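We give the chain.
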Amino acid sequence: MSEEPSDVDRFLALVAAAQGRDIRLTSIQAGLLVAADLGIARDSRAFARLLGIAHSLVLRELNVLAEREGVLQIVKWDLRTMRVHYTLPPLDEA
């Protein structure tokens, strides 16, 4: 009897796969990318809340990703709430 993987298991497998493709990614960084790709979370507070981790940790990891060219784009920064909205860059059409 085979069971369908849960959403959590699928998410964790995708995070592990992202880290396998880029060994520089931390678990949180890979999670941010996977969450954006799946449409689970596209802002720092939503991601922190969903994963039950400190928003400050998410902001730190998000800033590291934003500094790397072509990995992630910051689209809006709310100074009052410190919520950062982000997206994956569009795929280059060859």
User: Anything to note?
Assistant: The chain has a mean pLDDT of 88. The longest strand covers residues 73-78.
